[in-house]
Protein backbone atom coordinates (compact mmCIF):
# COMPACT_ATOMS: atom_id res chain seq x y z
CA UNK A 1 0.00 0.00 0.00
CA UNK A 2 1.28 3.47 -0.92
CA UNK A 3 1.74 5.84 2.03
CA UNK A 4 1.12 9.57 1.56
CA UNK A 5 2.46 11.93 4.23
CA UNK A 6 0.33 15.11 4.11
CA UNK A 7 2.48 18.14 5.05
CA UNK A 8 0.39 21.28 5.61
CA UNK A 9 1.31 24.87 4.82
CA UNK A 10 1.66 28.10 6.79
CA UNK A 11 -0.53 29.17 9.68
CA UNK A 12 -2.28 25.79 10.02
CA UNK A 13 -2.83 24.30 13.47
CA UNK A 14 -4.51 21.22 14.93
CA UNK A 15 -8.27 21.85 14.39
CA UNK A 16 -7.88 23.14 10.85
CA UNK A 17 -5.28 20.54 9.92
CA UNK A 18 -7.56 17.74 11.13
CA UNK A 19 -10.34 19.04 8.88
CA UNK A 20 -8.01 19.27 5.88
CA UNK A 21 -6.66 15.78 6.56
CA UNK A 22 -10.21 14.36 6.58
CA UNK A 23 -10.91 16.09 3.27
CA UNK A 24 -7.76 14.73 1.63
CA UNK A 25 -8.41 11.22 2.92
CA UNK A 26 -11.99 11.29 1.67
CA UNK A 27 -11.03 12.74 -1.72
CA UNK A 28 -8.29 10.21 -2.37
CA UNK A 29 -10.27 7.36 -0.81
CA UNK A 30 -13.01 7.72 -3.43
CA UNK A 31 -10.52 7.15 -6.26
CA UNK A 32 -7.54 5.36 -4.70
CA UNK A 33 -8.71 3.33 -1.69
CA UNK A 34 -5.36 1.56 -1.75
CA UNK A 35 -3.59 4.74 -0.58
CA UNK A 36 -3.13 5.54 3.13
CA UNK A 37 -2.83 9.24 4.02
CA UNK A 38 -0.74 9.82 7.17
CA UNK A 39 -0.77 12.81 9.49
CA UNK A 40 2.05 15.38 9.70
CA UNK A 41 0.86 18.29 11.87
CA UNK A 42 4.23 20.00 12.18
CA UNK A 43 2.61 23.40 12.81
CA UNK A 44 1.08 22.43 16.15
CA UNK A 45 4.41 20.97 17.27
CA UNK A 46 6.92 23.44 15.84
CA UNK A 47 5.02 26.38 14.27
CA UNK A 48 5.57 30.01 15.15
CA UNK A 49 3.54 31.99 17.68
CA UNK A 50 3.73 35.34 19.44
CA UNK A 51 5.83 34.51 22.47
CA UNK A 52 5.17 37.90 24.12
CA UNK A 53 1.44 37.78 23.24
CA UNK A 54 1.75 40.44 20.54
CA UNK A 55 3.38 43.12 22.70
CA UNK A 56 5.35 44.36 19.66
CA UNK A 57 2.22 45.16 17.60
CA UNK A 58 0.55 48.58 18.18
CA UNK A 59 -3.09 48.14 19.14
CA UNK A 60 -2.90 44.36 19.16
CA UNK A 61 -5.51 42.43 21.07
CA UNK A 62 -5.37 38.62 20.87
CA UNK A 63 -8.39 37.33 19.00
CA UNK A 64 -10.37 34.37 20.28
CA UNK A 65 -10.20 31.51 17.83
CA UNK A 66 -13.59 30.92 16.27
CA UNK A 67 -14.02 27.18 16.11
CA UNK A 68 -17.58 27.45 14.79
CA UNK A 69 -17.72 25.68 11.47
CA UNK A 70 -17.79 29.00 9.79
CA UNK A 71 -23.71 32.45 -15.73
CA UNK A 72 -21.64 35.13 -16.12
CA UNK A 73 -18.27 34.32 -17.67
CA UNK A 74 -15.90 32.61 -15.24
CA UNK A 75 -13.89 35.72 -14.45
CA UNK A 76 -17.05 37.67 -13.67
CA UNK A 77 -18.32 34.88 -11.44
CA UNK A 78 -15.03 34.73 -9.56
CA UNK A 79 -15.02 38.50 -9.14
CA UNK A 80 -18.54 38.37 -7.76
CA UNK A 81 -17.57 35.79 -5.14
CA UNK A 82 -14.41 37.69 -4.26
CA UNK A 83 -16.70 40.60 -3.45
CA UNK A 84 -19.07 38.41 -1.42
CA UNK A 85 -16.26 36.71 0.51
CA UNK A 86 -15.14 40.19 1.60
CA UNK A 87 -18.65 41.56 2.22
CA UNK A 88 -21.62 39.14 2.15
CA UNK A 89 -24.13 42.03 2.11
CA UNK A 90 -22.55 43.79 -0.86
CA UNK A 91 -25.10 42.78 -3.50
CA UNK A 92 -28.04 43.29 -1.15
CA UNK A 93 -26.78 46.79 -0.39
CA UNK A 94 -26.57 47.64 -4.07
CA UNK A 95 -30.04 46.21 -4.66
CA UNK A 96 -31.50 48.28 -1.83
CA UNK A 97 -29.88 51.49 -3.09
CA UNK A 98 -30.59 51.03 -6.79
CA UNK A 99 -33.24 53.06 -8.52
CA UNK A 100 -35.28 52.02 -11.56
CA UNK A 101 -32.94 51.41 -14.49
CA UNK A 102 -35.49 52.28 -17.15
CA UNK A 103 -38.85 54.03 -17.46
CA UNK A 104 -40.85 54.19 -14.26
CA UNK A 105 -42.82 51.04 -13.70
CA UNK A 106 -46.58 51.27 -13.48
CA UNK A 107 -47.81 50.73 -9.95
CA UNK A 108 -49.24 47.28 -9.38
CA UNK A 109 -52.92 46.65 -8.89
CA UNK A 110 -53.84 46.66 -5.21
CA UNK A 111 -55.23 43.29 -4.13
CA UNK A 112 -56.87 43.25 -0.68
CA UNK A 113 -55.10 40.80 1.62
CA UNK A 114 -52.17 40.25 -0.75
CA UNK A 115 -48.70 40.29 0.81
CA UNK A 116 -46.14 42.35 -1.14
CA UNK A 117 -43.33 40.32 -2.67
CA UNK A 118 -40.60 41.79 -0.47
CA UNK A 119 -42.49 41.15 2.75
CA UNK A 120 -43.31 37.63 1.59
CA UNK A 121 -39.66 36.90 0.82
CA UNK A 122 -38.54 38.28 4.20
CA UNK A 123 -40.96 35.92 5.96
CA UNK A 124 -40.01 32.96 3.76
CA UNK A 125 -36.41 33.19 4.93
CA UNK A 126 -37.50 31.96 8.37
CA UNK A 127 -38.62 28.65 6.90
CA UNK A 128 -35.50 27.87 4.91
CA UNK A 129 -33.97 25.77 7.67
CA UNK A 130 -36.92 23.37 7.48
CA UNK A 131 -36.92 23.07 3.68
CA UNK A 132 -35.64 19.56 2.80
CA UNK A 133 -33.97 20.64 -0.45
CA UNK A 134 -32.14 23.48 1.29
CA UNK A 135 -31.04 21.32 4.20
CA UNK A 136 -29.81 18.59 1.82
CA UNK A 137 -27.82 20.99 -0.35
CA UNK A 138 -26.23 22.69 2.65
CA UNK A 139 -25.32 19.34 4.20
CA UNK A 140 -23.65 18.31 0.93
CA UNK A 141 -21.61 21.53 1.06
CA UNK A 142 -20.67 20.98 4.69
CA UNK A 143 -22.55 24.14 5.71
CA UNK A 144 -25.62 22.71 7.46
CA UNK A 145 -24.22 23.59 10.87
CA UNK A 146 -24.14 27.24 9.86
CA UNK A 147 -27.64 27.51 8.45
CA UNK A 148 -29.64 28.49 11.54
CA UNK A 149 -27.10 31.11 12.60
CA UNK A 150 -26.79 32.79 9.21
CA UNK A 151 -30.57 32.85 8.79
CA UNK A 152 -30.97 34.65 12.12
CA UNK A 153 -28.19 37.03 11.12
CA UNK A 154 -29.82 37.79 7.77
CA UNK A 155 -33.28 38.39 9.21
CA UNK A 156 -31.84 40.85 11.71
CA UNK A 157 -29.93 42.68 8.97
CA UNK A 158 -31.16 46.17 8.15
CA UNK A 159 -29.59 45.76 4.71
CA UNK A 160 -31.75 42.73 3.91
CA UNK A 161 -34.87 44.53 5.21
CA UNK A 162 -34.05 47.49 2.96
CA UNK A 163 -33.60 45.18 -0.04
CA UNK A 164 -37.02 43.62 0.60
CA UNK A 165 -38.55 47.10 0.89
CA UNK A 166 -36.90 48.06 -2.40
CA UNK A 167 -38.62 45.09 -4.04
CA UNK A 168 -42.00 46.35 -2.80
CA UNK A 169 -41.64 50.01 -3.72
CA UNK A 170 -40.84 49.45 -7.38
CA UNK A 171 -37.05 49.57 -7.39
CA UNK A 172 -36.70 45.83 -7.88
CA UNK A 173 -39.03 44.03 -10.25
CA UNK A 174 -39.41 40.25 -10.26
CA UNK A 175 -36.64 39.89 -12.83
CA UNK A 176 -34.09 41.57 -10.58
CA UNK A 177 -33.27 38.33 -8.77
CA UNK A 178 -33.54 39.17 -5.06
CA UNK A 179 -34.04 35.46 -4.16
CA UNK A 180 -30.66 34.64 -5.72
CA UNK A 181 -28.94 37.60 -4.10
CA UNK A 182 -30.37 36.39 -0.80
CA UNK A 183 -29.05 32.89 -1.42
CA UNK A 184 -25.58 34.17 -2.27
CA UNK A 185 -25.52 36.38 0.82
CA UNK A 186 -26.48 33.45 3.06
CA UNK A 187 -23.88 31.12 1.57
CA UNK A 188 -21.19 33.81 1.69
CA UNK A 189 -21.96 34.37 5.39
CA UNK A 190 -21.59 30.64 6.06
CA UNK A 191 -18.35 30.39 4.08
CA UNK A 192 -16.88 33.31 6.01
CA UNK A 193 -17.25 31.28 9.21
CA UNK A 194 -15.21 28.32 7.98
CA UNK A 195 -11.85 28.23 9.77
CA UNK A 196 -10.17 26.77 6.68
CA UNK A 197 -11.48 29.59 4.47
CA UNK A 198 -14.23 29.92 1.84
CA UNK A 199 -12.27 27.94 -0.75
CA UNK A 200 -12.69 24.78 1.32
CA UNK A 201 -16.16 24.17 -0.17
CA UNK A 202 -16.17 22.95 -3.80
CA UNK A 203 -17.63 25.43 -6.26
CA UNK A 204 -20.33 23.00 -7.40
CA UNK A 205 -21.57 22.42 -3.84
CA UNK A 206 -21.38 26.15 -3.07
CA UNK A 207 -23.51 27.00 -6.09
CA UNK A 208 -25.96 24.17 -5.35
CA UNK A 209 -26.50 25.62 -1.87
CA UNK A 210 -27.31 28.98 -3.48
CA UNK A 211 -29.64 27.34 -6.01
CA UNK A 212 -31.57 25.52 -3.28
CA UNK A 213 -32.23 28.75 -1.39
CA UNK A 214 -33.13 30.58 -4.59
CA UNK A 215 -35.63 27.93 -5.66
CA UNK A 216 -37.21 27.80 -2.20
CA UNK A 217 -37.68 31.59 -2.28
CA UNK A 218 -39.47 31.49 -5.63
CA UNK A 219 -36.67 31.28 -8.18
CA UNK A 220 -35.36 33.92 -10.54
CA UNK A 221 -33.65 34.50 -13.82
CA UNK A 222 -30.19 32.98 -13.67
CA UNK A 223 -28.47 35.64 -15.82
CA UNK A 224 -28.86 38.65 -13.56
CA UNK A 225 -26.58 40.67 -15.81
CA UNK A 226 -27.96 43.96 -14.49
CA UNK A 227 -27.41 43.07 -10.84
CA UNK A 228 -23.98 41.60 -11.50
CA UNK A 229 -22.97 44.77 -13.32
CA UNK A 230 -23.95 46.91 -10.37
CA UNK A 231 -22.17 44.61 -7.94
CA UNK A 232 -18.92 44.53 -9.86
CA UNK A 233 -19.11 48.24 -10.55
CA UNK A 234 -18.90 48.83 -6.80
CA UNK A 235 -16.06 46.40 -6.25
CA UNK A 236 -13.29 48.97 -6.68
CA UNK A 237 -14.99 51.38 -4.27
CA UNK A 238 -15.45 48.64 -1.66
CA UNK A 239 -11.85 47.50 -2.04
CA UNK A 240 -10.62 51.07 -1.71
CA UNK A 241 -12.70 51.56 1.42
CA UNK A 242 -11.48 48.27 2.92
CA UNK A 243 -7.87 49.29 2.28
CA UNK A 244 -8.17 52.88 3.51
CA UNK A 245 -5.31 53.87 5.76
CA UNK A 246 -7.41 54.89 8.77
CA UNK A 247 -9.33 51.61 8.69
CA UNK A 248 -6.14 49.58 8.38
CA UNK A 249 -4.62 51.36 11.37
CA UNK A 250 -7.76 50.91 13.46
CA UNK A 251 -7.91 47.20 12.60
CA UNK A 252 -4.17 46.52 12.80
CA UNK A 253 -4.55 44.02 15.63
CA UNK A 254 -7.11 41.96 13.71
CA UNK A 255 -5.11 42.15 10.49
CA UNK A 256 -1.96 41.06 12.31
CA UNK A 257 -3.79 38.13 13.88
CA UNK A 258 -4.57 36.75 10.42
CA UNK A 259 -1.36 37.66 8.60
CA UNK A 260 1.16 36.57 11.22
CA UNK A 261 -0.06 32.97 11.14
CA UNK A 262 0.90 32.97 7.47
CA UNK A 263 4.17 34.90 7.46
CA UNK A 264 5.34 33.81 10.92
CA UNK A 265 5.71 30.16 9.95
CA UNK A 266 7.64 31.09 6.81
CA UNK A 267 10.10 33.28 8.68
CA UNK A 268 10.50 30.72 11.45
CA UNK A 269 11.09 27.90 8.98
CA UNK A 270 13.67 29.78 6.92
CA UNK A 271 15.63 30.53 10.10
CA UNK A 272 15.16 27.30 12.07
CA UNK A 273 13.81 24.77 9.59
CA UNK A 274 16.04 21.85 10.51
CA UNK A 275 13.81 20.89 13.43
CA UNK A 276 10.77 20.80 11.13
CA UNK A 277 12.60 18.71 8.52
CA UNK A 278 13.75 16.28 11.19
CA UNK A 279 10.16 15.98 12.43
CA UNK A 280 8.89 15.16 8.94
CA UNK A 281 11.76 12.74 8.28
CA UNK A 282 11.01 10.80 11.45
CA UNK A 283 7.35 10.43 10.48
CA UNK A 284 8.18 9.42 6.91
CA UNK A 285 10.57 6.78 8.20
CA UNK A 286 7.82 5.04 10.17
CA UNK A 287 5.51 4.59 7.15
CA UNK A 288 5.38 1.54 4.88
CA UNK A 289 7.11 2.10 1.54
CA UNK A 290 6.60 3.45 -1.01
CA UNK A 291 6.15 6.85 0.67
CA UNK A 292 5.01 10.00 -1.12
CA UNK A 293 5.40 13.45 0.45
CA UNK A 294 2.32 15.59 -0.33
CA UNK A 295 3.03 19.21 0.61
CA UNK A 296 0.74 22.22 0.37
CA UNK A 297 2.28 25.71 0.20
CA UNK A 298 5.16 25.84 2.71
CA UNK A 299 4.65 22.10 3.20
CA UNK A 300 5.96 21.66 -0.35
CA UNK A 301 9.04 23.72 0.50
CA UNK A 302 9.63 21.54 3.56
CA UNK A 303 9.31 18.38 1.46
CA UNK A 304 11.68 19.75 -1.18
CA UNK A 305 14.34 20.78 1.33
CA UNK A 306 14.09 17.48 3.17
CA UNK A 307 14.56 15.34 0.05
CA UNK A 308 17.27 17.60 -1.39
CA UNK A 309 19.37 17.49 1.78
CA UNK A 310 18.76 13.90 2.99
CA UNK A 311 19.77 11.41 0.26
CA UNK A 312 19.20 8.47 2.59
CA UNK A 313 15.43 9.07 2.45
CA UNK A 314 15.13 8.63 -1.30
CA UNK A 315 14.96 4.82 -1.49
CA UNK A 316 12.09 4.97 1.01
CA UNK A 317 10.42 8.16 -0.32
CA UNK A 318 9.77 7.69 -4.03
CA UNK A 319 7.90 10.87 -4.94
CA UNK A 320 7.32 14.52 -3.99
CA UNK A 321 3.99 16.17 -4.82
CA UNK A 322 3.77 19.90 -4.19
CA UNK A 323 0.45 21.76 -4.33
CA UNK A 324 0.41 25.55 -4.49
CA UNK A 325 4.11 25.63 -3.56
CA UNK A 326 6.68 28.43 -3.43
CA UNK A 327 9.71 26.13 -3.73
CA UNK A 328 10.50 27.12 -7.36
CA UNK A 329 10.32 30.84 -6.55
CA UNK A 330 12.48 30.53 -3.43
CA UNK A 331 15.07 28.61 -5.46
CA UNK A 332 15.08 31.31 -8.15
CA UNK A 333 15.50 33.93 -5.41
CA UNK A 334 18.38 31.87 -3.96
CA UNK A 335 16.45 31.63 -0.69
CA UNK A 336 16.10 27.87 -0.21
CA UNK A 337 18.02 26.42 2.74
CA UNK A 338 18.89 23.22 0.86
CA UNK A 339 19.90 24.27 -2.69
CA UNK A 340 21.78 27.40 -3.79
CA UNK A 341 20.53 28.78 -7.09
CA UNK A 342 22.24 27.17 -10.07
CA UNK A 343 22.89 23.80 -8.46
CA UNK A 344 19.68 22.24 -9.81
CA UNK A 345 18.13 19.09 -8.43
CA UNK A 346 20.51 16.57 -6.85
CA UNK A 347 20.90 13.24 -8.62
CA UNK A 348 19.11 11.34 -5.87
CA UNK A 349 16.00 13.58 -5.94
CA UNK A 350 12.82 11.51 -6.59
CA UNK A 351 10.04 12.15 -9.10
CA UNK A 352 8.41 15.53 -8.54
CA UNK A 353 4.85 16.54 -9.49
CA UNK A 354 4.02 20.24 -9.00
CA UNK A 355 0.32 21.23 -9.04
CA UNK A 356 -0.66 24.88 -9.46
CA UNK A 357 -3.66 27.11 -10.15
CA UNK A 358 -2.83 30.22 -12.23
CA UNK A 359 -5.14 32.26 -9.98
CA UNK A 360 -3.25 31.12 -6.90
CA UNK A 361 -0.64 33.84 -6.59
CA UNK A 362 1.34 31.67 -4.14
CA UNK A 363 1.84 28.82 -6.63
CA UNK A 364 4.77 28.67 -9.03
CA UNK A 365 6.15 26.61 -11.93
CA UNK A 366 8.96 24.13 -11.39
CA UNK A 367 9.89 22.91 -14.87
CA UNK A 368 11.14 26.27 -16.25
CA UNK A 369 13.51 26.42 -13.26
CA UNK A 370 14.49 22.78 -12.70
CA UNK A 371 13.86 21.29 -16.13
CA UNK A 372 12.05 18.15 -17.18
CA UNK A 373 12.58 16.38 -13.86
CA UNK A 374 9.62 18.39 -12.57
CA UNK A 375 6.16 17.88 -14.06
CA UNK A 376 3.88 20.91 -13.66
CA UNK A 377 0.13 20.24 -13.77
CA UNK A 378 -2.39 23.08 -13.95
CA UNK A 379 -5.76 22.83 -12.18
CA UNK A 380 -8.61 25.31 -11.91
CA UNK A 381 -9.99 25.58 -8.37
CA UNK A 382 -12.92 27.69 -9.57
CA UNK A 383 -12.22 30.40 -7.01
CA UNK A 384 -11.16 34.04 -7.21
CA UNK A 385 -7.59 35.03 -6.49
CA UNK A 386 -8.40 35.73 -2.84
CA UNK A 387 -9.50 32.12 -2.18
CA UNK A 388 -7.63 30.03 -4.78
CA UNK A 389 -4.66 29.11 -2.56
CA UNK A 390 -6.79 27.32 0.02
CA UNK A 391 -9.19 25.68 -2.42
CA UNK A 392 -7.16 22.78 -3.84
CA UNK A 393 -8.56 20.15 -1.47
CA UNK A 394 -12.12 21.03 -2.49
CA UNK A 395 -11.31 20.54 -6.19
CA UNK A 396 -12.27 17.06 -7.53
CA UNK A 397 -9.79 17.51 -10.39
CA UNK A 398 -6.89 17.53 -7.93
CA UNK A 399 -7.73 14.04 -6.72
CA UNK A 400 -7.85 12.78 -10.30
CA UNK A 401 -4.36 14.17 -10.82
CA UNK A 402 -3.12 12.62 -7.57
CA UNK A 403 -4.73 9.24 -8.32
CA UNK A 404 -2.93 9.03 -11.65
CA UNK A 405 0.42 10.17 -10.24
CA UNK A 406 0.63 8.04 -7.11
CA UNK A 407 2.45 4.70 -7.40
CA UNK A 408 0.50 1.58 -7.02
Keywords:
single chain, 408 residues, alpha/beta, six-stranded parallel sheet, 20 helices, elongated
Give a quick summary of the entry:
This protein is of the alpha/beta class and 408 residues long.
Describe this structure in words.
This protein is 49% helix and 9% strand. With 408 residues, the chain is α/β, with parallel strands linked by helices. The protein has a six-stranded parallel sheet, with helices on both faces. It is built from 20 helices and six strands.
Q: Which regions have little confidence, pLDDT < 50, spanning 5+ residues?
A: 64-72, 99-112, 171-175, 222-260
Q: Structural class from helices and strands?
A: alpha/beta
Assembly type of the chains comes to single chain
Number of helices: 20
Taken from the alpha-carbon principal axes, the silhouette is elongated
The H-and-E topology, N to C, reads as EHEHHHHHHHHHHHHHHEHEHEHEHH
Helical percentage: 40-55%
Strand arrangement, largest sheet? 2-1-3-4-5-6
Major sheet details? 6 strands, parallel
Termini gap:
7 Å
Radius of gyration: 24 Å
Strand content: 5-15%
Amino acid sequence: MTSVLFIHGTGVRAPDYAAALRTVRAGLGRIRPDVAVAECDWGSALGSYLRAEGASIPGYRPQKTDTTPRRAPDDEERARWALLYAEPDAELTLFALSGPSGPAEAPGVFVPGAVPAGQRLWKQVSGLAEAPAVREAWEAAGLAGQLDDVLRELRSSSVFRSACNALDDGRGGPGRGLPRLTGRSLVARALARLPEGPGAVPVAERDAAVDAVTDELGGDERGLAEVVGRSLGAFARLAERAGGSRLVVSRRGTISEHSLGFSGDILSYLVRGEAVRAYVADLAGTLPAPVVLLGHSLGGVIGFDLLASHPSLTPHVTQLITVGSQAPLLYELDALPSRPYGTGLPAHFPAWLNVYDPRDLLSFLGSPIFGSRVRDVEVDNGQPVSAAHGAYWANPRLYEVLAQALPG
